C-alpha cells in the first residue's frame, strides 16, 4: 500500500489544524472539585521548622518502617538533598536560601495528598482513593505494579519496593490514615516539637495560614503553597522565602492533574466501548455483502445454467426432430426403396 | 506510482532536520548570554548624549574614567588634558564635559569625541605605547559593553560632615549657599544650611544643576585644589567615593559633635497653630514631646527624617494634608509603618536588633491599635497644660526626663530563681529554667538601649515578654492554663503546650542569635529519661 503526496499533505495539514484549534480543558467534566467538605490536612510552617528530623522519626515509628541508614539524631544528612523512597515517607531538606536571609531554611518533602490526585487519575485499577478525610490511600491488593502513578505525580512522591521481587508495593505517606480515622494525630505532626506542623481541617488551616501572614507580613511570603497548586493539596506550606528557593516547583499551575488528562482519558471508554461495536458492525456489513453477492452469483449461475440447459434441450429436440425427420425420411426412403425393390422383384417374377 | 512512494521518507527527514536545527540555534543563542557580563567596576561612564541630541547611530561608548586618569597621571598630565576651565559664579572651575563647555550641536559633539579621543590614542600608539582603539568603530562602540558599573551612590553622614567642617574651620559658607531669586545669585544664609539634596535634585531644573553635577563640580574641584596645595584631600577618582570597598575605608569619627545650627534639643510635635486652635488642641490628644538631640545622635544624617527641608514636620504635613506635604497628613507622617522617616516606621526597624527582636519577633506587626499605646508618646501629662505656659518645651523636657528613670521590675525575691518545667515529661526529663537570670538579662538589655528604656517603663514589661497576654504580675497565670492540647479547632493559632514552649524558647534564641543551647539537640535543655516510654503508641502500618 502506498500513500499519495496529496494524501500526505492533507494529513499533515489536518494534524496541524487539529492542534492549533485545541480543545477546552473541561472536555469530560465541567465541575471543579474543591475537596471533601471538612477534609483534613497539615500545614507546614517553614519559618518554625528547625530541621530536627523528629517528624522523620515519628513517621518511621508509626509506620513500622525499617530503621534509617543514619540515625535520626544525625543531622549531617541534611547536607545532602534527599527524597522519599520505599522506606522513607517524609523528608526534611535544608536550603541556604537567598543571600539576605540568615540562617538555614527547611522544607518538608512527602505526599501532598492532592484534592484530585494525579496518581489516582493515572491508575487504571483504582488502587488509589482520595478519602473523605483528605488522605490519599493506596490498596496494594489491586495494584499491578505498572508504576504509572510514579510518573504521574508532579511532586515525584510514590516510591516502589524494588527489593521485593514477588510482591512489590508502591509506598508513600498515608497522612497516617489508620491513625486519623481513630482521631489520632499523624506521626510527624505529633512528633514535631515546634508545632511547625499544624493538623486540622484544610479549610481552617488556610484561615490560620492567612492570619499568620497578616500578623507577620515581614516573616512570610504572601502565598500558601498548596492552596491552589495542582488544584489544591491537603498539605499546605508557608515559607519566609519564595518557594522556588527551597526547591518547590512553582510551575505547576492550578489545574488538577485529573483535569489535564480528563479529556484524553475520557475518550478512552468511548474508544474501548465503541471500537468492538464498530468493528463488529463493519465485519457484519462486509459479511452480509459477501453473502448477498454469493447468493446473487449462485442465482446467476443457476439461471445461466438453466438457460443453457434449455437452449441445449431445444437444440437437442430440434436436432432430434431433425434426426427424426431425417430418420423418417431415411426410413421412408428406405421403405420406399424397399417397396420399389419389392415391386421390381414382383415385376421381374411376374414377367 | 513508484516515484510517489519515495515522498514520505523525504518529508520525515526534512522535518527532523528542521527540528534539530531549530533547537541547535536556540541553544546557541542562550549560550552566548553569560559572556555579556564584562568587567565590574565603579568608574564606568556611558558617553550618551542621546538625551540631548536624539538617538545615537551606534551603541553608546562605555568609558572607564579612572583608567584614563591613571594613564594621564603616569605621563604627568592632569585633568586639564580633557576638561576645559570655565568661569564659575565665584571662581574658575573645570567643566565636567569633555573638551568643551557646552553641547552646541550633535555633529560638533561627535567631532570633538572622535578627533580628541582618537587623536590622543593615535599619538600614543605612534610612540609605541599602549593606547585605546584607533581605527575600528566597534572597538569603542560595542554592542556588549566591556564593563559593568557597580557605582554606589555617595552621601555625607555626620562623621564625614564633621571632618569637612573641621578641615574648613567651620566655614560653612564654603559649601552651603542659598539662591536669591530677585538678585539672581547665590548667597550664604547663616543657620539656614541644609542638605544639598533639598535644592539640587536628580536632574537639572532651570538654573539649578543636578545633584550629580553639583557634587562633582564642588567636591572634586576642592579636592584637586587641596592636592595641589599638598594638603590632605578627599578622593578625586571615581572609585574613591563610588566603590563599595573604598566607601568602607572612609574614616569614621566616633562621638561626632553636634552640628551647630541652633536646632532645638526638645520639640513638641503638634499640629501647626494655623491648623488647630490652641484651646481645641488642649482638649484633644496631647502633643508629643520629642527628644531631638538624642535622635540626632542616633541617625547618620538629618535627611533621614528631614527629607525635604530642615523645617518642622507640621509645616508641610498638616492635620488634614496639604499640597506641600503631598497630601500626607501629620498623623500618617508620624505613624506609618514601612516608612523609615516616620516615628513608628523607624522604631519598627530598631526592634529588629537582636537584643530587641527576641521579644518583639512574636508581636503582631503593623499599627498598634490599642489606645493605651497612644499615651506612650502622647504623654497625658502634657495634655492641655503646656499650651498655657510660655515655654512649652520646658514642660516637655520635664515630662521626658520623668520617663528616663532606669527600668524597674519586681524585687529579686519575688522572681523565682529557677523554674522546673515538667508539664510535658515523657521521653525527656523536665527543664531547669534559669528564670531570674533571664529576667536580669532582659532588664540589662533594656537599660543599654535609649529607645527601649523610654518605652519599657512599666514594672511588668520585662515579665510580659514571656508571660504575654497576661498582666505580668508577681504570680502570672501558668502557661498550661492557656496552652493545652494542640490543634484545638476553635483556636488553631494558639499553640499547644509543647509548641508554645519550644516556639517561645527557640524562637527567642534564634532572633537574638543565641546558639547555645542548640535547638536541635534535645538533651541540651532536658536530659533523656532513663526509662523512656514509647511516645507513639503506633498506628496500623501503612499500605
Explain this structure to me?
The complex is a heterodimer of chains A (351) and B (543). Chain A is mainly alpha-helical. Chain A is built from eight helices and nine strands. The radius of gyration of chain A is 44 Å and the shape is rod-shaped. Mean pLDDT of chain A is 85; it is low at 16-28. Helices cover 37% and strands 7% of the residues of chain B. Chain B has helices at residues 2-5, 7-32, 50-53, 65-74, 106-126, 137-140, 158-167, 211-228, 238-242, 244-249, 278-283, 292-298, 313-316, 330-335, 343-350, 354-360, 385-388, 392-402, 435-447, 450-455, 461-464, 497-512, and strands at 39-41, 44-47, 61-64, 85-87, 92-94, 147-149, 178-180, 185-187, 266-269, 288-291, 419-421, 431-433. In chain B, helix 16 (354-360) runs antiparallel to helix 22 (497-512). Chain B starts with a helix and ends in a 31-residue tail after the last helix. Classes of the chains: A mainly alpha (351), B mainly alpha (543). The A-B interface holds A 2-5, 8, 12, 48, 50-53, 58, 61-64, 75, 89, 103, 138, 140, 169, 171, 173-174, 176-179, 182, 184-185, 187, 189-195, 198-201, 204-205, 207-208, 211-212, 215-218 and B 1, 4-5, 7-8, 11, 364-366, 486-487, 489, 492-493, 495-496, 498-499, 502-503, 506-507, 510, 519-520, 522, 535-536, 538-543.
**Main sheet specs of chain B:** 2 strands, parallel
Major sheet of chain A: order of its strands?
Answer: 8-1-9
Radius of gyration of chain B: 34 Å
Largest interface: A-B, 54 and 34 residues
* Cα distance spanning the termini of chain B: 62 Å
Please report the total strand number of chain A as a whole number: 9
- What is the C-alpha radius of gyration of chain A, as a whole number of Å? 44 Å
Q: What would you call the shape of chain B?
A: extended
Classify the helix fraction of chain A into a percent range: 40-55%
Strand order of the largest sheet of chain B: 1-6
Q: Which sequence of SSEs, written as H and E, runs from N to C of chain A?
A: HEHEEHEEHEEHHEHEH
Question: What low-confidence regions of chain A span 5 or more consecutive residues with pLDDT below 50?
Answer: 16-28
Beta content of chain A:
5-15%
Tally of helical segments of chain A: 8
Largest sheet of chain A: 3 strands, mixed
Mean residue pLDDT of chain B: 84
Structural class of chain A: mainly alpha
Question: Could you give the distance between the termini of chain A?
Answer: 100 Å
Strand content of chain B: 5-15%
Instruction: Name the quaternary structure.
Output: heterodimer
